[in-house]
Write a structure and sequence with these properties.
Layout lengths: L3 E5 L2 E5 L2 H8 L5 E2 L2 E2 L19 H16 L1 E2 L4 E3 L7 H5 L6 H17 L4 H7 L2 E3 L13 H5 L5 E3 L23 E3 L5 H4 L3 H8 L5 E2 L2 E2 L3 H11 L17 H15 L1 H8 L27 H7 L2
Parallel strand pairs: 6-7, 7-8, 8-9, 9-10
Antiparallel strand pairs: 1-2, 3-4, 5-6, 10-11
Helix pairs in contact: 10-11
Length: about 300
Amino acid sequence: MIKKSHAAGDYVFVGASKEDAEELLKLDTFTFAGTQLEVVESNEEPGQLSKATESKETQELRAKLQSILSQRYGSDNKLLKLDALASDAELVTLGMFENRERALKTFKGLMAICDGLFKTASEKRNAIESISLANNSIDDIAQVESVATTFPQLKNLDLSGNQIGSMQAMDRWRGKFKELETIYVAGNPIEASDPNYQTTLLDWFPRLQNINGTQVRTAAQIEQQAAASMPKPIPQNGPDFRDVNGIGENFLLEFFASFDQDRQALASRLYDEGSQFSIAVDSVSVRDPNAPPPLPWSAYIKVAST
């Protein structure tokens, strides 16, 4: 009846034919080993939990969190407001921020729900351009690191009113948010503790133009900086012949003219009994098979070796 099975958390996925599956579904609510069974049909691959395998309580919680997210989303400006979450009456009622550990799990859960709402990365990118994380008592970006993985194409980010005291606390976002244009960090201790934090932000986020509502560089400056950082080809200046006063040129002109007209005079003028000559012969180079065969070099080599 059961062809294969695979455990995943509190669930066991089983593979069966359509006819056998209908019989297995009849076991739903049966009691086994003192525990009531929950048998549901799932089209997910083994090992992947789906909404169908979630408990009723989990499904209800997911629905409530999704409702809270929808209330905090503004379609006009494509802004998702996740500020002051610990003060949200509905989240407080659900006990989502009763302690630090629960708060971290809640935020990760919110990001997971956000990710599941969109079928494609392009759809998510077009829906949400800005996120506010203001007034959440964040002292380390590790607490909200999942924002970067869930919304990597974010353009605007508000971190104002938190407890970030150094750039080290933001290090996990270094190199993330490649399209980030605006960031707010006003009201954080880092403003007093690190006078150079803006310079670091500009290094970490290559498209960043505005910090705390002030433009620190333009799009044109960013393009110029990017162009300047591109690797440059090795300069090709062509031949560089430096013949001071035409000495080389005059010699060659005189040499070739004398070679053609009076070689004996040329030899007596330029060479004496102590002059030496050298010759290099490549007898194994690849030649054009259709060209005439080369003349033998044996006579020259014989003279050169003596």
